[in-house]
Amino acid sequence: MAEQTAPRVDVDDLGQYVGKPVQVWGWLFNSRSSGRIVFLLVRDGTGLVQAVVSQRDVEGRVWDQARRLTQESSLKVTGTVRADERAPGGFELLVQDLELVHLAVDYPITPKEHGVDFLLDHRHLWLRSRRQHAILRIRSTLVGAVREFFDREGFVLVDAPILTPAAVEGTTTLFRTDYFGTPAYLSQSGQLYMEAAAMAFGRAYCFGPTFRAEHSKTRRHLMEFWMVEPEMAWAGLDDICRLAEGLVSHVVGRVLERHRPELALLERDTAPLERVRPPFPRVTYDEAIEILRKNGAAVEWGADFGGDEETILSNAFDRPVFVTHYPAHIKAFYMKPAPDRPEVVLGADLLAPEGYGEIIGGGQRIDDLELLMRRIEEHHLPKEAYEWYLDLRRYGSVPHGGFGMGIERVLAWICGLPHVRETIPFPRTLYRLYP
Ligand code: NSS
After folding, report:
1. Tens digit of pLDDT for each residue in 88-103?
2. Which of 62, 142, 347, 409 would bridge with 363, disulfide CB 3.0–4.6 Å?
3. Domain containing 55 — which CATH number?
4. How far, in Å, is the centroid of ligand 1 from the Cα of 300?
5. At which of 69, 102, 135 does a domain end?
6. Residues with a CB atom less than 6 Å from ligand 1
7. Per the confidence metrics, is the pTM higher than 0.85?
8. Domain limits at 187?
9. Relative to the CA of 409, which ligand 1 atom is closest?
10. Residue 324: which CATH number?
């Protein structure tokens, strides 16, 4: 009997089995019936396939089962694969047998519209829906492409700790915890450790979760996000920008290569993504101020750019754009001043186009011991916690730098999403720690 011999196959691979009996194990996505036929839309994680149950061709038991199935019930379907251009995925199954594994009762996410809070409360189930599935598949490819790029460029993966004694990006966004009686903080960035790694390996990167207690509820901020942070010894601002544009172009290219169907499902216009090729335009902070003023923004020299300014700037270019040479006082303590103009630093942010704004922040680091010690004092940081970091300037200091790229912001841009919350499997936002 076909039921016993039919191999279990992923929906993705059905094309290799045309004309043959197979089993698909999955969940009922949707169903409809028309007279003596029931159409079951089955998803198995790799794809969706329509399984056609015809009352004429199956036993009564199978027919009754097919009509009783509810959304998200788990099942095993046995049927013959048929190529059909109109079917989702290009193939359908002519069902011979059906085994109900578990009957789902009142699945909360129905094909009707739901509010975003409801969906986020049900994030553990929302992951099964098509859009979320597409986004997280692209995320998986994005992460792989990042690793592929750094492997190819000769970077060594050096994991940074999550529990840390000191701040990297300012003390106001630290998540504090208790480390057997002494305070510890969840890592805001692995950068300082990557500087140590760069002095050991030349080129190193880390890629992991980072944490910021951001008291802001914007479409760009998460409390927990994933950041990839390369760091290079013997590097200046230009080297850092070239690495960043190489990385961004590579990962966008990979997604375009592998995820046309997902991008189409997300209704993403891919034309702006096709333009993402190096070199990217670069403007200085001074030039950015000019652009902002021309677009009607009232900004003073010395002010940091918020979401609105970033949106204006990123809309002014059709490709990602670097903004360099920010005023020193709005940037982190470790940023190296420009030699000819110490009030600005050799830092670079990369703004994604189409209003997406900052996706990368980085630059060249202070390599001089005295200056770094002064900055630590000026920023009221506890010097003891940074002694090891100062050692990097005591023993063979060299010009160096790197950057951090936030995966969720890059993914939101690539997928054309209005908010970062859908780009991470379980988002941590200002008022959300559940599920
Ligand atoms: O604060 S950054 O601009 N820079 C750093 O953390 C450096 N220490 C990185 C380095 O040079 N190694 O953050 C870098 C990126 C930023 O451009 C965003 O893409 C992302 O990290 N980022 C965030 N994504 C989501 N949510 C929040 N809250 C967030 N903060 C930064």
Report:
1. 889 999 999 999 999 9
2. 347
3. 2.40.50.140
4. 24
5. 102
6. 168-169, 189, 191, 212, 214, 221-222, 225, 227, 229, 358-362, 402-406, 408-409, 420
7. yes
8. 121-422
9. 19
10. 3.30.930.10
